[in-house]
Amino acid sequence: GAVVSQHPSWVICKSGTSVKIECRSLDFQATTMFWYRQFPKQSLMLMATSNEGSKATYEQGVEKDKFLINHASLTLSTLTVTSAHPEDSSFYICSARQTGGTYEQYFGPGTRLTVT
Amino acid sequence: QKEVEQDPGPLSVPEGAIVSLNCTYSNSAFQYFMWYRQYSRKGPELLMYTYSSGNKEDGRFTAQVDKSSKYISLFIRDSQPSDSATYLCAMSATGGSYIPTFGRGTSLIVHP
């Protein structure tokens, strides 16, 4: 149980285009989902907390107009990187917290974004 | 000083060795302590969690928390090449959103 999927697993896009990444909790409902960014050999950097049916809470320094987050259902959150640039190339990982849960997060397999 | 400090390694050990991975932290409000394993190009997988101080054992893995020293450890017995991965510690306070703070991870290499 507690499986989280991400799609796509790998995407290459041209500079200036937008990319949407989906995060799904497959066998549980997740009121809260999290989006992280990870650079090589670095830890997870929390970008935003996504709550179903409400606006996402962004961490300091993360541009909310560039990284659009939508959490329209209890099993799906999306991250859209708008007007992507090469510096946005990174590994994006989502996690989901089971509705009614506390500390435990279940992570997706990650999406590698390369902007050329 | 970062809230959570973790040596990035790499830590290289022979198969069968006992591995000790550690993190220190500065926030005395942390009560939940977790260890995640992350294989290359994959998302982290929760290995162990403990609440407050003490030890917890699960198979070859033992997690220890020493709140007085603000120090946590993960021990891996009889290490296997399949244990080669990055191990991230994470911790959170009670109440509020329980959003964890992660260490930067320690890269472990177990060679045959």
Would you tell me the overall average pLDDT of chain A? 92
Q: Could you give the count of β-strands of chain B?
A: 11
Count of β-strands of chain A: 11
Order of helices and strands of chain A: EEEEEEEEEEE
Mind summarizing the main beta sheet of chain A?
Answer: 7 strands, mixed
Topology of chain B as a string of helices (H) and strands (E): EEEEEEEEEEE
> Major sheet of chain B, described briefly?
6 strands, mixed
Oligomer: heterodimer
Q: Give the mean pLDDT of chain B.
A: 92
Strand content of chain A: over 45%
- What is the percent of helical residues of chain B? under 10%
Helix content of chain A: under 10%
Radius of gyration of chain A: 13 Å
End-to-end CA span of chain A: 37 Å
N-to-C span of chain B: 37 Å
Q: Please report the number of helical segments of chain A.
A: 0
Overall geometry of chain A: globular
Radius of gyration of chain B: 13 Å
Descriptive overview:
The complex is a heterodimer of chains A (116) and B (112). Chain A is mostly beta strands and 116 residues long. Helix content of chain A is 0%, strand content 52%. Chain A is built from no helices and 11 strands. In chain A, a hairpin with a 5-residue loop joins strand 4 and strand 5. Chain A is globular. The N and C termini of chain A lie far apart (37 Å). Chain B is mostly beta strands. In chain B, a hairpin with a 6-residue loop joins strand 4 and strand 5. The model of chain B has no long low-confidence stretch (mean pLDDT 92). Chains A and B meet through strand 5, strand 9 and strand 10 of A and strand 4 and strand 5 of B.
Task: Write a short abstract of this structure.
Chain A is mostly beta strands and 116 residues long. Helices cover 0% and strands 52% of the residues of chain A.
